[in-house]
Amino acid sequence: MHPELAAILKKQGYALVGNHSAVKLCHWLRTSLLYNRECYKHTFYGIASHRCLQMTPAVTHCTQKCLFCWRFQGSTQTQFEQADDPGFILDESLKEQYRLLTGFKGDDRCSQKKWEEAIHPVHVACSLSGEPTLYPNLGAFFAECHKRGMTTFLVTNGTCPDVLEHLDPLPTQLYVTLAAPTKKIYQKLCVPLIPKAWEKINETLALLPSLSTRTVIRHTLVEGWNIGWEKEYAKLDSKAHPLFIEPKGYVFVGYSRQRMHLENMPSHETVNRFGEKLSTLLGYPIAKERKESRVLLLTRDAAQMKLPC
């Protein structure tokens, strides 16, 4: 990694691992330790926020340059030249997580019991930045996590359906971010870097029902860009037939502030109206919501909400 790029990422709070991976403490991990407030994934799926390792094996690799993305996009790559060993990535990520957590131990607001739990993560969220499915050893990485008794979460933009089709093992929970209702909006908002990206996303949606894991469609909603096409979203969601759907409002943070405006961040009321319309169209009841995160959970089977650990 170029030293200048590494310096930018470190300034943003990333702990770099090897040639292409990174770890960063989640905001909700911090609030869980200091204020006993959990993230929306705890509300939706029962995940312990302080026991989650937020990382990516592809910090500078992606197939899109989404306008709403918070990350630095100045050196985005679409292919790997040299891939680190998956066991090395996990080992070093855990070491960096521990290093980032050391300062919390002496904070009077932090429960020592929680801190002891936090330094031994049980969830790996492969979602921090970039497109993880570009990492060629992703299946082996998940196998390493599962071997150590850790659940895995993959957030993908869906542009690599061939990877998902042959991924072994699959993650415990698979998120596909669907941030556009039509090809025209997709090309303008998500700025694909590879050919036929929209067509590949649709291949991923058609593939999801055949995958034996928990599946989630996440709609990142951006005011003035992709809200108001509930019928189009419903058609795409019906193809994917996910277990869960998360309509979530865009947040005006990071480098997205160079491309977006504060007005592009929808209110929770706007997200809620979108979710209600989608719920009616699909027959997925709204099961949960978190106003501070501007997110709803729709599901076709509320009995499966809690993550099996």
Structure description:
- There is one protein chain.
- With 309 residues, the chain is α/β, with parallel strands linked by helices.
- The protein has a single domain (3-304), classed as Aldolase class I (TIM Barrel).
- It has helices at residues 3-11, 27-35, 40-45, 86-101, 112-118, 138-147, 161-166, 183-189, 197-207, 230-240, 268-282; strands at residues 15-17, 21-23, 52-56, 123-126, 151-156, 173-177, 214-221, 244-249, 286-290, 295-299.
- The chain has a ten-stranded mixed beta sheet with strand order 1-2-3-4-5-6-7-8-10-9, with helices on both faces.
- β5 (151-156), α7 (161-166) and β6 (173-177) form a beta-alpha-beta unit.
- α4 (86-101) packs across α6 and α9 packs across α10.
- The longest helix has 16 residues, at 86-101.
- The radius of gyration is 18 Å and the shape is globular.
Structural features:
309 residues; alpha/beta; 16% strand; TIM Barrel; ten-stranded mixed sheet; globular
Which sequence of strands runs across the widest sheet? 1-2-3-4-5-6-7-8-10-9
Helical fraction = 25-40%
- Strand count, sense and closure of the main sheet? 10 strands, mixed
Cα distance spanning the termini: 36 Å
Net shape: globular
Strand share of the residues? 15-25%
Class by SSE composition: alpha/beta
Number of H- or I-type helical stretches: 11
CATH architecture: Alpha-Beta Barrel
The average pLDDT value, as a whole number, equals 96
**CATH top level assignment:** Alpha Beta
CATH fourth-tier homologous superfamily:
Aldolase class I
Radius of gyration: 18 Å
